[in-house]
Structures are given as structure tokens and as C-alpha cells.
Amino acid sequence: MFIAITREVPGSIVDCELTHLARTPIDVVRARAQHEQYCDVLRVLGLEVLSLPEEPDLPDSVFVEDAAVVLDEVAVLTRPGANSRRPEVESIAQALEPFRPLLRIESPATLDGGDVLVVGRKIFVGQTLRTNASALEQMTNLLKPFGYEVIGVPVTECLHLKSGVTQVAENTLLINPAWVEKKYFPGFDFIETDPSEPFAANALLVGKTVIYPSAFAGTRARLETVTPCIVTVEADELSKAEGGVTCCSLVFKR
Q1: In what order do the strands lie in the sheet with 204-206?
Q2: How far apart are CA 178 and CA 183, in angstroms?
Q3: Is 160 a known active-site residue?
């Protein structure tokens, strides 16, 4: 049984943190409708959705992925790179406590969960404005006892590692090679994003199904050559807050 932890979209999302995008108006009603569609897709795929209540004072709190990294053995609570996001972690810790032993990233490290890509026993950690070298070191030390290999990956021109690369099949990664270099992922097959769709590398693999934003038709056509199991969702409002489909849930085995 898989569980997905999600959180309702706060009205304050209009005041979200932004790094690489200019601020544009966010339609909160539409964002909430799109988020609900996303949660419905998770339910249809057989996941138990644990929906946390809105955090009105935390504009980015719908992006629950950044607060924790959940593995089969443990969950690692992060220390987000944006000061405004650090209060998000405690309620995620409470939600995860019944399911996993909890480890924690400590100062001076900063780590956003969106910078962590787990593929089997390999854990790729993006080195970005939100995640620093100390986080890479702490992740290595925390997870070595469980047999994980932690690998640092430089990232340019985007917010998170998973803005530029995600897993879409057992041994296949969807990647924007302008933001993340393939050489850090030896042994994998790749699908490159359509050059006209630089933000199209963020996809959520659930079992053998890929949840994918409907806005990126060109890259979706490329994905269909590898997997026919693609479910599209509208995600353009949350994308204005630099969010993607991986950002809005923490998916793990019970």
C-alpha cells in the first residue's frame, strides 16, 4: 500500500518564494482545483492520500516534498534553504512519525527535498541555491548505514534538481540537459525534454504510471515512446510558484 501526503493550497501562495521566475498573478481558486485533480489522480492510482490542512501563514506549504525525503527505512527531515519555509517541517514530521523513524538535517546544512532524486539505492542531491555542500555531507553520513550511495549533482538555471531531471521508468530519466548534465547519471537511459519546453523535466512516477503536466505536449510525445502509462494533470497555476508535480506530494510505501 502506498501513501501520499499532500497539503491544501493556502491563499497566501500569491506571496510564495520565487527564484528563477518573475512574479505573475496566481488564481488561488484554480490552483486549488488543479491540486484537487492531482490528489484525485493519486487516489485513482490506488494511493491512500493523507491530506494535511492548509497552513495560511506558510505560502509555499503545498509543496510538501521539500520538507522531507522518505525512504523505505527512514525519513529525513530537511532544513529548507529559504528561511520562510523552515516552519513547514514540523507538521510534516508529525505526519510521518507513525510511518518512519525520523532523521534530521541540521545547521549549517540547507536541503530542499526537491533537490533529492532517489533511484533504487542511489540518492542524487542537487547542489543549488537551496541545498548546500553540508547537506550532501550530512545525507551521506545519515544514510550510509542503510546502504545508500549519495551523489552530488551540480544544477544551473533552475530551482531544484527535479526541475531538471526525474525518473520516468525503471532505468530511464527525463532530463533537460541544459540544466543538469547527463554525466552524473552513468548507466541510465535518457529522454530529453523538447527544447521549446525547458520546464518539462518534472514528472512523478507512481508504480509504472507517470503523472505529467498537460502543458508539455512536445515532451509528452517523447515520453510516450518509453511508457504508454501517462496521466496528465493541469498544473499551470502551481507552476507560477515554481512548483511541479513531484513537489505536491510525499509518496512512500506504508
Answers
A1: 204-206, 209-213, 230-233
A2: 12
A3: yes
The distance in angstroms from the start CA to the end CA of the chain is 6
The confidence band for 20, taking pLDDT boundaries of 50, 70 and 90, is confident
pTM score: 0.97
pLDDT digit string (tens) for 79-107? 999 999 999 999 999 999 999 999 999 99
Active site residue 247: yes
| pLDDT band with cut points at 50, 70 and 90 for residue 1 | confident
Q: The domain that contains 96 carries what CATH number?
A: 3.75.10.10
Number of domains in the chain: 1
Q: Is the model's pLDDT at 169 over the cut of 90?
A: yes
Residues spanned by the domain of 221: 2-253
User: Which of these is catalytic: 16, 35, 160, 248?
Assistant: 160
